[in-house]
Model the fold of this input.
Amino acid sequence: MVFVYINLGLLNATSVSDVTVTQMKREPALSVTWSAVTPPGNCGLNYKLHWSYPNNTEAGHDATSDLHYNITGLDYDTEYTVCVISSVEGEDASPVCGLGTTIDSRLGIYLEATSTTITVYWNLIEGVDSYRLTWFDGEDGAWTSVGGETDNFVINDLDPCSNYTIDLQALAGGQQPPPEVTDLSLTQVGNETTLDVTWLPVTPPGNCDVTYKVTWSYPNDTEAGRDTTTEPHYTITDLGYDTEYTVCVASSIQGLNADQVCGKGSVVRPSVAGAVERLRVSSGATGWVRVEWVRPDGVRCDVQGYRLTWNTHTIPHLLPPDTTRYTITRLKPHTTYTISLQTQCGGTWGPARTVEVRTAGKRAREGTPGHPSHQGKANRRLPPLSLTHAGLRR
Done:
């Protein structure tokens, strides 16, 4: 079998057409598209791209087999020349070029503040219908809308020595911010330094994706952290005990943010009940024991009461928190009792203090056995008798 390869000569590659260069979503990037070229036969086809600065210095090049290409990592406010060249089996057609500009559409906010006002300045963006300005101090917020030709706004009647968060959004083509989240809930997870934050999801229009921006701050309005999520819940970890946090959630769709919805949540240190101090007992008259103690020192919660038990008996109710003594009655004489006392604090029980005591015996009544006045008739000593024998005389 013989294989024969015949070179048919130059293939005369056809140039592309309809080259379009547009900026990608306010980023320093350009999207390039063009119409397809049909190669002859089964010949291989690809497209070479070259882009250059205004001074014709090449800024980059690449190749693709698709009908589009994204050029990223460009400079803002720069006009680029982008050329597309179809290539068939190594033969290049004439380049077809287009121009694209990377406009800096970042707002460039600049602030000036006095004791009660903040003046917000920003760069105007071409094609913007209006600007939405929001300010927030950690608890309360407000917003306003100004025309697309306005580049500043004065926020009045602010609180001195306060921290404010300023948010500015450019709206074009009838854009509207998404709805606010609702039913914001903050719950401490067990005894951990963690807050579980939940809210009802926002329904985005069409096929738009919605994200949620979560921020949390200390009581002095200093920001403690921030993050984003696509789920209607978020868990904030590694917080501090005995601290109340302000947590705010804002829904965001395609870069447009709704007003923040905020709530407060506290991280409470686990209740630790202490043991009572100097527990002591004394047994007096028959059938009772007096129990005395000192309130536990250094507990990290309010004492709710005391539980007193002896042997198998327990007082059916808590002793009040200001109690420091209690008398147990109706005990058996000559009996050893184990008395235990516990502190209840924050729903938990502290360690028990335990002491043993033996009750006294019954005191005998006068004239009964056991009383000193009673020695028993059988042992009573009789006085001497004197007998006179009448008629016996000498």
Q: What stands out?
A: The mean pLDDT is 81.
